[in-house]
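During the no-cost extension, the postdoctoral fellow (Dr. R.K.) reprocessed legacy sequence entries with the updated structure-token encoder. One reprocessed record is reproduced below for audit purposes.
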Amino acid sequence: MSTVPYSKSLKVVAEPDVLVCGTGLAGIGAAVAAGRNGASVMAVDRMGFAGGFFTNVIGFAFDGFVYEGTGKPVVGGLVFEMLERMHVVEPGQAPHLSYNVNGDFTEVEKHPDRVIPRTDPELFKKAADDILTESGVRPLFHSQVADVIVEGDRIDSVIISNKDGLVAVRPKNVIDATGDGDVAAWAGCPYEKAETLQPMSLHFRIGFVELTFELRRKCAAVLEQAKAAGRIGLYGGPWPATFSGRDIYFNVIRTPGDVTNPDDWTNAEIQGRRDAWAMFELWKEALPEFRDAYFLTSGPTAGARESRRIVGDYTLTGDDIRQAKRQYDVVVLGAWRIDRHPVQETGYHHMPMVPPYDIPYRTLLPQGIDNLWVAGRCHSATSEALASSRVTANAMGMGQAAGTAAAMATATRGGSRDVSITELQDRLVAAHAILDPASAMAPS
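Re-encoded structure tokens follow.
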């Protein structure tokens, strides 16, 4: 492969205490927590809005927010606040309610009496804008992390690409909330990647149709018959939900590939749209409920469930999750099922239920760099463990912990490993995070 030499002096556009790379659920949690704990914060994102899975991919509910057995929350803090800001629950009520695990009608049918921890792409965009700016964060959208400059065991600068060209941000501390561990990987931190990654998915939304429990079963049956007839290929679920009662959001596309490979990600977009339209046309052809249906939107981007997993000071394992191993440095709880999507199977897959478990602070610390944290699905976990810990509520909780720790490190001029675990946990609990699984296990 040929190379092109390139050298350029870059303008330093900001020198914040904390730079947050990515404003998905983990990034929002990190930026807000860092700002509220006294740090000056810049948060950059390649999109024109924050929200990650909820807005970039079109997601529906806070997966991992509750323990399925009781419907009680296991992740609090900013998840509670975002539900209040979107008017899903009344102020102060979030910790005291029982919730469905998410908005998928497969789950809602089991517990129709429980509150759905629902989101909405447009509501979430506004709520994210508000919480970031009110916390003193400087968001910078349409800005893609392009490279990292390392000096010794610290990140000196992060290179950003945007309409100003290539520019540099020189922060004291950095939080990698890119999902793919871009910053950590480009800084030379070790990472792992499963031999077989979970498939990517392009979500889509159909309007002018009312979702019912029976229609969910009909949609699944149409896809099963079409697959048997060779009319469609790989798919998952389907897992449908509704934002308005007069639309259906579908998580159903499965596209094998690696999102850190630009060709694979491009293919996931193109193949995902082809598959989405094929399924829509099958339903419109077979089901009278779809007579007036309209294909509203897909994307905006295909989402990934798994890519780089940073090697941290501790690696969360499947046994840790199944055995609910307590960790001295717990900073967020998890309880989502071990939800590992297969790459060559269609329909529904087995998702073993797990008890509430601890996610330790050490999984947020990439080896080799002392002023960097990761948060979200790129944290240090085995591929099996990540199948549970990767989801939205856990990501926001990890971000809240990382942002709090980064602000603490800024104040003391220490590194990520100098942070007092006890003080960090006390600050998180004071901000309504949940670190004791007992409350989630107690029956109503």
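Residues 58 and 308 are 22 Å apart (CA to CA). The chain has two domains: 12-88+120-194+307-441, 204-298. The remaining legacy entries will be reprocessed before the final report is submitted.
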